[in-house]
Amino acid sequence: MSFWDIVWFIVLGLLLVVYLMLLFSIIADLFRDHELSGWLKALWVFCLIVFPFVTASIYVVTRGSSMAGRSAAAALKRREDEADYIRRVARGDATDPMAEARNLLDDGVITEEEFARIQRRTLG
Q1: Helix-helix angle 95-107:112-123, to 10 degrees
Q2: pLDDT by residue (tens digit) across 45-86?
Q3: Concatenated DSSP letters for 7-31?
């Protein structure tokens, strides 16, 4: 193998990786889109398998801007879900268990004695 054969092999390998990344991002976008019917999604996937380069090019040209919007919306939702989870799990304040215990007492789930025990344990 000559030097240029190796360079050509590396370039083709990189192009294959780029195409596979594009293919998987198109498929992920198809299943993320709730406005598109199931039959149209199946048709896009079928065309991606039969005519991969043409279909990928058409998809990016026709649905590229909405693809970016759906991706940004999904990232924002993930970020909000993560922030909500962190807020729920990370309890840095002693008043949070007290507020939760007060809600349980108001709902009738725990008694006054249990509330007093939680209050003593929380406040030290």
Answers
A1: 180
A2: 999 999 999 999 999 999 988 998 999 999 999 999 999 888
A3: HHHHHHHHHHHHHHHHHHHHHHHHH
Q: Locate 50 and state its tokens.
A: 């039969």
Which residue reads 């349980």 in tokens? 104
Task: Report DSSP letters for the chain, one per residue.
Answer: --HHHHHHHHHHHHHHHHHHHHHHHHHHHHHH-SSS-HHHHHHHHHHHHHSHHHHHHHHHHHHHHHHHHHHHHHHHHHHHHHHHHHHHH----THHHHHHHHHHHHHTSS-HHHHHHHHHHHH-
pLDDT of 121 > 70? The answer is yes
Task: Give the model's pLDDT for residue 80.
Answer: 95
Instruction: Please state the pTM of the whole predicted model.
Output: 0.61
**Which amino acid, residue 107?**
D
Q: Using alpha carbons only, how large is the chain's radius of gyration in Å?
A: 27
